[in-house]
Amino acid sequence: MLFSSITFIYYFLPISFGLYLITPKKYRNLVLLISSLIFYFSGEPIYTLLLVFSSVSDYLHSLYIESHRGTKYAKFALISSIIINLTALAFFKYIDFFIEMINSILNLNMALLNVPLPIGISFFTFQTMSYTIDVYRGEVKADKSLLSLATFVCLFPQLIAGPIVRYTDIAAELKERTLSWDAAAIGVKRFVIGLSKKVLLANSFGQLCVIFRDIQDKSMLFYWMYGIAFTLQIYFDFSGYSDMAIGMGKMLGFNFPENFNYPYISKSITEFWRRWHITLSRWFRDYVYIPMGGNRVSKLAWIRNILTVWLLTGFWHGAAWNFILWGGYFGVLLILEKVFLGKVLTRIGKVIPHVYVMLLVTISFVIFNADNLSQAINDLSGMFLGATHVQDKIPVVNAVTLYYLKSYFVLYVIAGVASTPLPKTLYSKISKRINILEPIMVLMLLLINTASLVSGSFNPFLYFRF
Predict the structure, then answer these.
(1) Neighbouring residues of 45: CB distance < 8 A, sequence distance ≥ 6
(2) Number of domains composing the chain
(3) Are 13 and 248 in contact (CB under 8 A)?
């Protein structure tokens, strides 16, 4: 079930929220858990058992760690929990990748298993792992209520594609939370804004990306239009989902962490990753980078730590070499900025660093969105060399490109402005002077989105595949 679907917006969300509101406080976690399991079951009937198993497994492991704190048995339980979580992730997400690699290295012909990927497994696996690790570290007490912990693991607003909510983020709210109409109003507004990002902007750029792949008569400019279109699509798609998740959390009494902070206004790649997928960056920092020694080691070990984290970050996104290349690409750029390039960027004004970031980020997402390394190389060749392996030479521009440039030019401009804080700043100034404007604007946006969903085509969130 998609957040950006008529079924979810007009049936599941109002019914589940209404039941949640009229339920006594002590039973709200139960209602929320049942709603979450129904939500997941609607898309993944069989894998709902995996979600339940993950909840029970980490519940039992955390209790054992708590009761044996300070002993070797607590460490054994932590290792057991991590192995179980990573084994499930490796099997469902990476098994065919490993089989292909073994076939290639050993010249074998083992059949691929073609195991369907459970939606959101990368997100809920990282969340449950962070819980048992935090219990082991003594940063949080083991939750003695299976209902409470299962609610955390299965919480439908952020279950599928984040933000990656740690148990410590909402531990107090799982036990006691206050609902208010003010918070619900803020949540509804945030949800509708996220929905608008997804439906009106991301989906439109997604259609252009599909057109690009289908058309044979390409030009260099069309390759650049595609690269920029996907760069905008993935931002509005993923940040839109995060906005909707955070908004629904507000409606239910939870405060989820922010996941995006206008990354496309960054003036360095380091700043970009402080603003993009914030909860994932923090997860790798706290559970991989710092335990490896962080920057409190020799320079060679520090470089190793950064590259390890970023290769893992790329691999987390998908079982393909282009994702690993994507992660390594950012690892190298971050090392260069920390060694010398960052100082250079601070001395050359604002425009050049911003162009530098957007150019490198666009290249990264062209690699990210390719089906394989061959396609990534082909797309980059089309952008920079004016030639591809399909066609030795392509024109700089052609009539087909001009047609789509005219058709989508206004959308590019709107999206470019919308990726900055300017619309929020202007909206805040206007709404403060005209209080009635805010609910009217939210309602209008909801109606526009509804009309678009009714007439549009199916277009799932990009991060569902991770």
Answers:
(1) none
(2) 2
(3) yes
Looking at the structure, do residues 248 and 113 belong to the same domain, yes or no? no
CB distance 192 to 450 below 8 Å: no
Residues 48-67 pLDDT 10s = 999 999 999 999 999 999 99
Mean model confidence pLDDT for the chain: 93
**Identified catalytic residue from 61, 68, 277, 317:** 317
Q: What three-state secondary structure class fits 126?
A: helix
Asked if residue 463 has pLDDT above 70, the reply is: no
Give the span between the Cα atoms of 341 and 357, in whole angstroms: 12
Is residue 61 among the annotated active site residues? no
- 195 and 150 together in one domain: no
Q: Which residues, 6+ apart, have CB-to-CB distance to 78 below 8 Å?
A: 61, 65, 132, 133, 136
Give yes or no: residues 148 and 61 share one domain: yes
Cα 162 from Cα 155, distance rounded (Å) = 10
Q: Can you tell me the distance from the alpha carbon of 209 to that of 203, in angstroms, rounded to the nearest whole number?
A: 10
Angle at 399 between CA 394 and CA 400, to 5 degrees: 80
pTM above 0.85, yes or no: yes
Tokens describing residue 114: 């073609």
pLDDT in tens, 242-257: 999 999 999 999 999 9
The amino acid present at 72, given as its one-letter code, is K
Tell me if 345 is assigned to some domain. Answer: no
In angstroms, rounded to a whole number, what is the distance separating the alpha carbons of residues 196 and 401? 27
| Residue 343, helix vs strand vs coil | helix
How does pLDDT run across 99-125, given as a tens digit for each residue?
Answer: 999 999 999 999 999 999 898 899 999
d(CA 41, CA 47): 8
